[in-house]
């Protein structure tokens, strides 16, 4: 609903009567709380017109304000034409892919990225602003896991899609299944200060895990006593039971004890 008004001032020492002609022709989308009345001497009155449409519509109408002396002896003292212009339009914001993101299984402490595309398919500019949060008290604090770039911006009417990148870097193991983590405010920038006209929830799914492996034996490998010049083999096993490949490197380490033995 939108409301507009015109302030009428009576600067004379006499009361004045007024009437607004053409109200019935405005249609059901308009409401005029008061279409006639009396303004006391040296007083003012706010003439308001309210507009509320249930469908897209463009209206151009003309109202006629007539001012009389209270007793209507003299007749019309003044007339004013008031142009009424109003438009109701659909907000048509397209979000791909369908306001839902699935990061799948990702590694903790590594970046995972997903992308949304926002398209303004309407007639006028729209603004957007993303925020991160979760109302579920059973979930860990996840606000620091997500960053959105750009976090806010303006979408031109019928323009090209704007890409918004969501980066997730979990610092712990966490499981999310279509949780409402992100919210996108749709803002009408033409209204003074910007007015939020809709809030869209972006649902997130992911499974964040650490790498998991096992080395057997877990401690030292003991070759026992050996005859000089003979060979003996020992084995150890590296087992990866996580979700991702792991890479390992074997390097030779010389202990201080070994160095002292050779020096002696």
TrEMBL record:
Limits of the MSP domain: 92-207
PROSITE patterns attached to this UniProt entry: MSP
Keywords from the UniProt entry: Cell projection, Cilium, Cytoplasm
Protein's name according to its UniProt entry: MSP domain-containing protein
Domain of life according to the entry: Eukaryota
Pfam families: HYDIN_VesB_CFA65-like_Ig
Primary localization class, coarse: other
Transmembrane segments: none
InterPro entries in UniProt: Hydin-like (IPR033305), HYDIN_VesB_CFA65-like_Ig (IPR053879), Ig-like_fold (IPR013783), MSP_dom (IPR000535), PapD-like_sf (IPR008962)
Cellular compartment(s): Cell projection, Cilium; Cytoplasm
Organism of derivation: Ataeniobius toweri
UniProt-listed PANTHER family: DLEC1 DELETED IN LUNG AND ESOPHAGEAL CANCER 1 (PTHR23053), HYDROCEPHALUS-INDUCING PROTEIN HOMOLOG (PTHR23053:SF0)
């Amino acid at each position: 609903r939108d409301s507009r008004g015109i302030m009428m001032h009576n600067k004379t020492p006499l009361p004045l009567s007024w009437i607004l002609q053409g109200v019935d022709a405005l249609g059901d989308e308009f409401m005029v709380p008061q279409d006639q009345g009396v303004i006391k001497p040296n007083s003012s009155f706010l003439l308001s017109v309210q507009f509320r449409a249930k469908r897209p519509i463009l209206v151009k109408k003309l109202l006629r304000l007539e001012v009389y002396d209270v007793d209507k002896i003299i007749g019309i003292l003044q007339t004013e034409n008031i142009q009424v212009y109003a438009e109701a339009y659909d907000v048509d914001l397209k979000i791909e892919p369908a306001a839902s993101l699935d990061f799948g299984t990702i590694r903790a402490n590594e970046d995972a990225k997903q992308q949304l595309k926002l398209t303004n398919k309407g007639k006028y500019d729209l603004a957007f602003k993303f925020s991160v949060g979760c109302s579920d008290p059973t979930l860990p604090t996840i606000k620091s896991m997500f960053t959105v770039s750009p976090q806010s911006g303006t979408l031109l009417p019928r323009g090209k899609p704007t890409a918004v990148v969501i980066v997730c870097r979990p610092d712990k193991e966490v499981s999310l299944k279509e949780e409402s983590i992100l919210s996108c405010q749709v803002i009408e920038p033409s209204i003074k200060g910007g007015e939020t006209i809709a809030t869209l929830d972006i649902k997130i799914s992911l499974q964040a895990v650490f790498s998991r492996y096992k080395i057997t034996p877990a401690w030292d490998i003991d070759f026992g006593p050996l005859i000089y010049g003979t060979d003996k083999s020992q084995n150890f096993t590296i087992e990866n039971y996580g979700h991702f490949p792991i890479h390992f490197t074997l390097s030779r380490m010389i202990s201080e004890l070994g160095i002292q033995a050779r020096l002696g």
